[in-house]
Structures are given as structure tokens and as C-alpha cells.
Amino acid sequence: MSGSESGSSRAGGPEGGFIELDGVEKVFEVRKKTGFMKRERRRVRAVDSISFRVERGEMVGYIGPNGAGKSTTIKMLTGILTPSAGRLRVAGIDPSRERTRLAHRIGVVFGQRTTLWWDLPLLDSYRLMHRMYRIPDARYRENLDRLVELLDLGDLLDVPVRQLSLGQRMRGDIVAALLHDPEVLYLDEPTIGLDVISKSKVREFLRELNTERGTTVLLTTHDLQDIEQLCRRVMVIDHGRLMYDGALAGLHEVGESERTLVVDLERELPPIDAPAPARVVRVEGPRQWLAFPAGESAAPLVARIAAEYPLVDLSVREPDIEAVIATMYGEQAERAIS
């Protein structure tokens, strides 16, 4: 399934998606210095005629390389930016015209940009959120206690935000975004800076939030494990255009991506005799790298190597999403030329 086919089928579906974009564009005017006292104006199309629907309760991955237009899309969905063209609705609300009304229905975590007060302890930031959103006292206390426990922030409530690690602050921002029970949650790199255990906790928390409360989640991330473990649907944006909309397995097929199995043996040996389509791509002493299609399970390959070779350790590395998208983009460019 191609990106254009999938995207157009969703965009052409019945009206009433919880999040709706129809032909949305965002163009910026950029001034570039071309000489002494001279500047040239040019138009940069950050988002180019994007259309899609997200239904209430869906958890969707929205991915792409840096500069693809992900953050611009999120900013239009929150009302921070106004579209240059097209129609956009979130829960029936035009974000740019009714930003204050929409703010009570959405939560946002913007990656490296915190919504917390830098010099205040976490708890003071949450108290300010309590007042800003006019959250009923009982509901505020219940939500705060539940979120702090689930995200393991109990010992950090009296710590100023500036003293928190990136991972701790990310968890703190997630709590802040959810105190008022938003119907929609926008997440930008929610597991950045987290160790393996913390990532697992955050993912489990988001899964529970989506399942039990029906919160609609739009997730941007470079960590494909976030997408694999949380999202049934993924959308890929590149150069401002929606290139793919569908299942993650289909994305791997379109991009012909591969995962890498890194194998440490007891001693240096000739390249492992791997069953096709797996193949050895690199050997350094007792360590060997094997590539295999990303859409296939690693279990059969691991079982065979463990049975036939003196195995010490192994790990699976996920494909680089930017490489997958670059392959897709290159293929589309070639088709356009031909």
C-alpha cells in the first residue's frame, strides 16, 4: 500500500474524525541575506496539502526525519500556528480561532521544551496548572496522586525543574499535560532521555491511558519501539507531505527496511551460515552483524544461531527510520522522473 493511496483513502472517508485535516498547508516567508544591504524573500512550504483523520481513542504514530513538518503540524493542531490553507478541526473546534476553548481538551508534551516553571519545584508547577485549568480540587488530587505514582515522581515533587534530568523532566511534563483529563494528547519524543526501565513504564502508562480512558494520542518519535509497542497505525511525513498512512509492517515493506542482529560468539569464526533472506553484513573478531527484513520475527534466526554456534550474547537493533523514509522518498522521486 503506497502512502498516497492510504492517505487518500483515509482522507476521503466519512466525516466526523476526532482530528480532521483537509488539504492543510503551512507556508513561511524566509528572508535570506544575498549581499550588502540586500535580502531575498523565499517561501518555505513546511506542510504541503496534508489530509488525514484520527478517530476518537486512536493512538497514532506521526513520524519523519527532522524538518519534515511534524512539529509544524502539531502546532497547528494546538492553535499555536494558523494554517495557510485547508481545513483543520480537533473535536469539532478550529484550533486557531478557539485556542482557549481547545486548551481544556488537549494535553501537549513538546520534547525539549518544557511546560513546567524552570525555577519552581514540580509540585508548585502542578498547583499552578490546577488554578489555570480550574480543575476541581477532588479531581486534581485524584489525578495528581495517580499520575505521580504511575510515573514514579513521588521523590521529585519538591525538586526544582532545572535540577531534574531530561528523563525526569519528561515524566514531569507528561503529568502536567494530563492533570486536566484531556481528550487528546500530543506527544513529541516522550521517551527521550529515559533508561530502558523508565521507557517501559512510560509506554505501559500510555497504553493504559489509551485503553482505560480512551484518550486519543498522536505520538511523534524517532524510537520505532515506541511505535511498535503503542501504535497500530503510523503516518510518515517528509518534506511536508504525507507519504504513508497504515500499519508499521506495511511501512517496512514499502521502505524495504532491515533490522540488525548483533551476535557475540565465544571466539572468532567464519561468517554465520544464515538462512535467507538473513545475511551477514559485517564481521569483527567474535562479533558478527546479520541483517534481516524488519517485518520478520528475529526468533527463528536467534534459535538457529543459538543451536549451532557458541553464543555469548546478542541484541537486535531496529532500523533507522530516517533511512527507511529516505528509501521511500528516493523511490517516489524515481517513479516521478520515469
TrEMBL record:
Domain ABC transporter per the UniProt entry, residue ranges: 19-264
Annotated compartments: Cell membrane
Signal peptide range in chain numbering: none
InterPro entries linked: AAA+_ATPase, ABC_transporter-like_ATP-bd, ABC_transporter_ATP-binding, P-loop_NTPase
Topology versus the membrane: Peripheral membrane protein
Gene3D superfamilies with a match to the protein in the record: P-loop containing nucleotide triphosphate hydrolases (3.40.50.300)
Keyword match Nucleotide-binding: yes
Keywords associated with the record: Antibiotic resistance, ATP-binding, Nucleotide-binding, Transport
UniProt cross-references to SUPFAM superfamilies, sorted A to Z: P-loop containing nucleoside triphosphate hydrolases
Gene Ontology terms for molecular function: ATP binding
Pfam families: ABC_tran (PF00005)
Protein name: ATP-binding cassette domain-containing protein
